[in-house]
């Protein structure tokens, strides 16, 4: 079976590697254009492009696949390339570009998407973040037949995974990426052996995982501590939860919720700041123990190490 692959970040690169190692022929890889990254803001190839080039796979990087947009000429070239590249199916994983109906109609066996949630829950751009933020007990991978709607297509397979209490988006991403790689290999083998029976998504239980914005990073200590702890896990590694104290914005990378805050302290009040207790902050409900913090331009440090170079005496989180 010949597979055109479309994807961009590490999540997709894991799937591409799984397909390659399983022996599928990959005549073309689509990925987003190189982006500036790092302190020097130099152009950097996506993880998918890096893997593809390292293993001799042809790569195309159209800025868009829409024939009616400002990149219509590049899109037309990409459409022609897809039509001229012999293949059976297209696999899409976190590509980041919309596939218009004209593209979805090209592969003889359609376009299969690896989605990091148990559809129809968390359709959209940030399913891993939103599942942790919402306090879901489980998530998973859905292999879906793509159609024009946003993650609305019929499901070919799904598999669940527990969200552990200490999971961050980073750790859950890695586990789901590995699961997605295994599942797409299995799905393509089944497809090649005579097909799979797609089933419509349930009409109930639909939620949308909106793209994560940097403006969401700020912690509001009037919220319950358990919700803030989930938000910190969800926003690790991007964009990183942030809290301001005495005019300084700190990144908060790890924290745990405490069931009760002693006394009647106002949200944001610092209840403790020492090596034994860590940094404990009053919340709307309960208190939050900050376990790993970072100053602008500094390194991530455990609370005990952070307190060696910073004092919270007389300060409060705003």
What does the model show?
With 318 residues, the chain is α/β, with parallel strands linked by helices. It has 2 domains: 2-209, 3-Layer(aba) Sandwich (Rossmann fold); 214-307, Roll (Methionyl-tRNA Fmet Formyltransferase, Chain A, domain 2), CATH 3.10.25.10. It is 26% helix and 27% strand. It contains 8 helices and 17 strands. It has helices at residues 10-21, 47-54, 72-84, 101-104, 127-134, 169-192, 225-234, 303-307; strands at 2-7, 25-30, 35-37, 42-44, 59-60, 89-93, 111-115, 123-124, 138-145, 155-162, 208-209, 241-245, 248-258, 270-274, 278-282, 287-294, 301-302. A 7-stranded mixed β-sheet has the order 5-2-1-6-7-9-10. Strands 12, 13, 14, 15, 16 and 17 form a 6-stranded antiparallel β-sheet that branches. Helix 1 (10-21) runs parallel beside helix 6 (169-192) and helix 5 (127-134) runs antiparallel to helix 7. It is elongated and about 70 Å long.
Short description:
The protein has 318 residues and is an alpha/beta fold. It is built from eight helices and 17 strands.
**Tally of helical runs:** 8
Q: Any guess at the CATH architecture of the largest domain? A: 3-Layer(aba) Sandwich
The main sheet orders its strands as 5-2-1-6-7-9-10
Principal-axes shape call: elongated
- Number of DSSP strands? 17
Distance between the termini: 57 Å
H/E topology pattern? EHEEEHEHEHEEHEEHEHEEEEEEH
**Helical proportion?**
25-40%
Beta-strand percentage?
Answer: 25-35%
Report the CATH superfamily of the largest domain: Formyl transferase, N-terminal domain
Question: What class would the helix/strand composition place it in?
Answer: alpha/beta
**Major sheet summary line:** 7 strands, mixed
Q: Can you tell me the CATH topology of the largest domain?
A: Rossmann fold
The low-confidence parts are none
CATH domain class name of the largest domain: Alpha Beta
Mean pLDDT: 94
| Tally of discrete structural domains | 2
């Amino acid at each position: 079976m010949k597979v055109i692959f479309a994807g961009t970040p590490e999540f997709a690169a894991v799937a591409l590697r799984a397909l390659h190692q399983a022996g599928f022929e990959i005549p073309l890889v689509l990925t987003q254009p190189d982006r500036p990254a790092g302190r020097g803001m130099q152009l950097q190839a996506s993880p998918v492009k890096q893997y593809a080039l390292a293993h001799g796979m042809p790569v195309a990087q159209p800025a868009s696949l829409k024939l009616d947009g400002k990149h219509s000429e590049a899109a037309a070239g990409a459409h022609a390339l897809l039509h001229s590249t012999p293949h059976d199916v297209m696999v899409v994983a976190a590509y980041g570009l919309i596939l218009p109906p004209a593209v979805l109609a090209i592969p003889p066996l359609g376009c299969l998407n690896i989605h990091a949630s148990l559809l129809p829950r968390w359709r959209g751009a940030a399913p891993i973040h939103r599942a942790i933020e919402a306090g879901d007990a489980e998530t998973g991978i859905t292999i879906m037949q793509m159609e024009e709607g946003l993650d609305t297509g019929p499901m070919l397979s799904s598999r669940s995974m527990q969200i552990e209490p200490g999971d961050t988006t980073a750790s859950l991403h890695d586990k789901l990426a590995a699961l997605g790689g295994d599942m797409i290999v299995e799905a393509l083998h089944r497809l090649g052996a005579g097909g799979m029976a797609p089933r419509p998504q349930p009409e109930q239980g639909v939620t949308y995982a909106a793209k994560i914005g940097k403006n969401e990073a700020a912690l509001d200590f009037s919220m319950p501590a358990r919700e803030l702890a989930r938000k910190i896990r969800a926003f690790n590694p991007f964009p990183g939860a942030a809290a301001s104290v005495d005019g300084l914005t700190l990144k908060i990378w790890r924290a745990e919720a405490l069931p009760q805050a002693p006394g009647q302290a106002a949200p944001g009040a610092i209840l403790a700041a020492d090596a034994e207790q860590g940094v404990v902050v009053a919340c709307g409900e309960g208190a939050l123990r900050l376990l790993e913090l970072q100053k602008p331009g500094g390194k991530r440090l455990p609370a005990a190490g952070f307190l060696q170079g910073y004092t919270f005496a007389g300060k409060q989180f705003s």
